[in-house]
Structure prediction request, 248 residues.
Amino acid sequence: MTDTIIVSGGDIQSDFALDFLEKKIKENEKICLIAADRGLEFFLEHQLLPDVAIGDFDSLSEEGRGFLEIHEKGSGNGEIPYGGMMGWKVQKSFRDEVKEITVIRLRPEKDDSDTQSAMNYAIQNGAKKIMVLGVTGNRVDHLMANFGLLVLAKKQETEVILADQYNYMKLVSDGEIIKKSEQFGKYVSFFPLGGDVTGLTLEGFKYSLDNYHLTTADSGLTVSNEIVSEKAKVTYRSGTLLMIMAQD
Prediction:
């Protein structure tokens, strides 16, 4: 598994998500689709099939619960280990598609969120790039927790990107090149995560920086920048740098 898309259970704009999935699948037909808990509702609503469904599934609709109950047969009735899972395989046909789905049920009493469990599953199965949809919305606390997933994944040499119809969020590495032709939206903002970012230099941007020490207190300086060259470059000496590309 190399590229993975996780659909979480947060607010999701269907037209954006469907276009996003279609584009990514065309780029890589072998991309793995994971439904994280209530993210399964998105797939069922649009008659799509994930490769994996993972979560405690305590907030599913009647249709979602029914889908799982049908396919839980034969999975066994043993106790689910704390923070662990029971897995089984199912087959279901939507339209002309038949796919074997791996379903992983987690205990509700766990330390990780369903999205984090889905990310961990993907990384354990070899994912090096993970896109996550449905992690933004009204709950800012959930969004902040999901920024932590970016850091956790980076420590495991995996890139995680959070996206919705207005934002594209990821950690950027020292020396990263951003092509203007490939940017998401008009604006590019940078924020330090978990401490200061030292020696920050921005080249090819409307507002450049040279060897700047960026702190949380003055990160307003790096909000709503724009790329003005064909390629922009971000360099820094130390720290963890979050980039958010945004459109109005």
Remarks:
- The helical segments are 14-27, 39-45, 62-71, 114-124, 140-155.
- Confidence is low (pLDDT under 50) at residues 74-95.
- Residues 192 and 241 are 5 Å apart (CA to CA).
